[in-house]
């Protein structure tokens, strides 16, 4: 069972949707929410991945369901949310985590590639949130957490993703204002460099760059999937009842590094939190 720092039963009787729930941070968050009593609706494009995570969660006594869906498809998102509401009568939480991009400098990104990344990382999140609001949360409240990225100051070789994530931060702020009247809180989590299966999408030529990332972080290490999940769970929970419109950075202080300012050596290394006994080390960091 997932070792969460939050109290057992925190999400009892609640239905939470996690997009991109078939792998990485989404999978980890689904495990944590299920361990805390939520029923988790796993959304993603790959039915096999979703089924595997559903089985993993069932094997440790949790409840999850697989809901394959392409979040770029407006009609499919509308039908998905309608089906979840028809079955459960409620949606308490939405974790807008599905994402995807490919490394490329701006000058080489085609219109098709640009639009694909914007659709997945910005438009898809908007569609999921809008439908959850209109079909469920408007009536009884809820919480949305949008997963973005550490894109402050630009995102070299990921300009499409950086633009989409920055857009999602602004969407978070507008939705927080417009939806507060319904008792719906909208926040974002911005992970920094996290040792997650998503890293394996980078080409082998970037291996050395990726392995050097921790040297650019004041806490001098990668984050764990569980450290991102904990922030998401906090923002979904009643502990965050007065928090809306914020973006919580979970990045070991990376954006606080200043050019020319030497980075002090670590005297007391921070201990990574890994409540997720099923975490996979990405191949680029030596996993199999
Ligand atoms: N994960 C990555 N891209 C996705 C998409 N278009 N729909 C659902 N999950 C996704």
From TrEMBL:
<comment type="function">
    <text>Participates in chain elongation of fatty acids. Catalyzes the reduction of trans-2-enoyl-CoAs of varying chain lengths from 6:1 to 16:1, having maximum activity with 10:1 CoA. Has no 2,4-dienoyl-CoA reductase activity.</text>
</comment>
<keyword id="KW-0276">Fatty acid metabolism</keyword>
<keyword id="KW-0275">Fatty acid biosynthesis</keyword>
<keyword id="KW-0443">Lipid metabolism</keyword>
<comment type="subunit">
    <text>Interacts with PEX5, probably required to target it into peroxisomes.</text>
</comment>
<keyword id="KW-0444">Lipid biosynthesis</keyword>
<dbReference type="GO" id="GO:0006633">
    <property type="term" value="P:fatty acid biosynthetic process"/>
</dbReference>
<dbReference type="Pfam" id="PF13561">
    <property type="entry name" value="adh_short_C2"/>
</dbReference>
<keyword id="KW-0560">Oxidoreductase</keyword>
<comment type="pathway">
    <text>Lipid metabolism.</text>
</comment>
<dbReference type="InterPro" id="IPR036291">
    <property type="entry name" value="NAD(P)-bd_dom_sf"/>
</dbReference>
<keyword id="KW-0521">NADP</keyword>
<comment type="similarity">
    <text>Belongs to the short-chain dehydrogenases/reductases (SDR) family.</text>
</comment>
<dbReference type="GO" id="GO:0019166">
    <property type="term" value="F:trans-2-enoyl-CoA reductase (NADPH) activity"/>
</dbReference>
<keyword id="KW-0576">Peroxisome</keyword>
<protein>
    <recommendedName>
        <fullName>Peroxisomal trans-2-enoyl-CoA reductase</fullName>
        <ecNumber>1.3.1.38</ecNumber>
    </recommendedName>
</protein>
<dbReference type="InterPro" id="IPR052388">
    <property type="entry name" value="Peroxisomal_t2-enoyl-CoA_red"/>
</dbReference>
<keyword id="KW-0597">Phosphoprotein</keyword>
<dbReference type="InterPro" id="IPR002347">
    <property type="entry name" value="SDR_fam"/>
</dbReference>
């Amino acid at each position: 069972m997932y070792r969460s720092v939050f109290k057992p039963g925190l999400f009892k009787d609640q239905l939470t949707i996690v997009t991109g729930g078939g792998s990485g941070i989404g999978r980890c968050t689904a495990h944590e929410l299920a361990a805390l009593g939520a029923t988790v609706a796993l959304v993603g494009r790959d039915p096999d991945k979703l089924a595997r995570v559903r089985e993993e969660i069932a094997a440790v006594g949790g409840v999850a369901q697989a809901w394959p869906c392409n979040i770029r498809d407006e009609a499919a998102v509308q039908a998905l949310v309608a089906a979840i509401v028809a079955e459960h009568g409620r949606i308490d939480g939405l974790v807008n985590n599905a994402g995807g991009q490919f490394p490329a400098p701006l000058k080489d990104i085609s219109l098709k590639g640009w639009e694909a990344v914007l659709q997945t990382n910005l438009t898809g999140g908007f569609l999921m949130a809008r439908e959850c609001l209109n079909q469920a949360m408007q009536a009884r409240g809820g919480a949305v957490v949008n997963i973005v990225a550490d894109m402050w100051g630009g995102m070299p070789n990921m300009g499409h993703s950086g633009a989409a994530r920055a857009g999602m931060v602004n969407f978070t702020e507008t939705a927080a204002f417009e939806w507060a009247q319904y008792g719906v809180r909208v926040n974002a989590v911005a992970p920094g460099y996290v040792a997650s299966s998503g890293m394996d999408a980078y080409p082998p030529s970037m291996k050395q760059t990726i392995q050097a990332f921790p040297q650019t972080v004041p806490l001098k290490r990668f984050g764990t999937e569980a450290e991102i999940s904990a922030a998401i769970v906090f923002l979904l929970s009643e502990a965050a009842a007065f928090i809306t419109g914020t973006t919580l950075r979970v990045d070991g202080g990376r954006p606080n590094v200043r050019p020319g300012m030497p980075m002090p050596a670590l005297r007391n290394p921070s201990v990574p939190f890994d409540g997720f006994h099923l975490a996979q080390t990405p191949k680029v960091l030596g996993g199999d």
